[in-house]
Write a structure and sequence with these properties.
The chain has about 200 residues and is of the alpha/beta class. It has one domain (about 1-200): Rossmann fold (3-Layer(aba) Sandwich). About 30% of the residues lie in helices and about 20% in strands. It contains 6 helices and 8 strands. It has helices spanning about 10-20, 55-60, 90-105, 125-135, 140-155, 190-200; strands at about 1-5, 25-30, 45-50, 65-70, 110-115, 160, 165-170, 190. The longest helix is centred in the middle third of the chain and has 15 residues, at about 90-105. It is globular, with a radius of gyration of 16 Å. The two termini are about 15 Å apart.
């Protein structure tokens, strides 16, 4: 198996990369910088570039049969009002290219990471969290995820969009809960480690 991974410099993408390599999955990985990925693996091919650049995506994909994207609109730090450090349309811009390249390379399987609170799940998040999204810079990734989900879900590809709750680095072995139409009601947070134990 060979996957193409986008967004592995930080957070969940970095954890996906580590888990894939631990399971001896071949990974073509496109990152902006090697600062945080400072290790080598016989299963890793590392490429440097921009996930919103068609040619740089195309030149990195290799013979992958699956595309996984955890790219996001980034803030300078965790603080919700922190300045945005990339484009507010980064996710949707990349998603459009992912769809085009998947069709060009005849790759049918695409998995992307969105967020609980996007789309119809907005009504299911606590009121205080709705207000936080509305009045902080959290609104930008949520708005762009809304656009990104429409691009992927209407692509005609075999797609999965995962909407995790708030991801943390704290707990390691939580019980995983998968919800449909808010049943059962999800917890508000989950660790990245626990999340990946279920989905990779």
């Amino acid at each position: 198996m060979e996957i193409f991974l986008i967004g592995a410099n930080n957070g969940l993408g970095y954890e996906i990369l580590n888990e894939a390599l631990r399971n001896k999955i071949n990974v073509n990985c496109l990152v902006r910088s090697s600062k945080k990925i400072n290790f080598e693996s016989p299963y890793l091919k590392l490429f440097y570039g921009d996930a919103t650049n068609f040619n740089e995506l195309l030149n990195s994909i290799g013979t992958s049969s699956v595309i996984i994207s955890s790219i996001n609109v980034k803030r300078k730090n965790f603080f919700p009002w922190s300045k945005i450090s990339n484009s507010t349309s980064t996710i949707s811009d990349s998603s459009k290219l992912i769809v085009d390249i998947a069709k060009l390379k005849q790759i049918n399987r695409v998995i992307t990471i969105s967020a609980f609170g996007v789309g119809e799940t907005y009504k299911n998040i606590p009121k205080w969290f709705q207000l936080l999204i509305k009045y902080s810079n959290l609104k930008y990734p949520y708005k762009d995820h809304q656009v990104h989900e429409k691009i992927i879900s209407t692509s005609g590809l075999n797609w999965t969009i995962i909407r995790p709750v708030v991801l943390t680095n704290f707990k390691k072995n939580e019980k995983i809960k998968i919800t449909y139409k808010n049943h059962p009601k999800p917890n508000l947070i989950i660790s990245r480690k626990s999340f990946l134990c279920r989905f990779l």
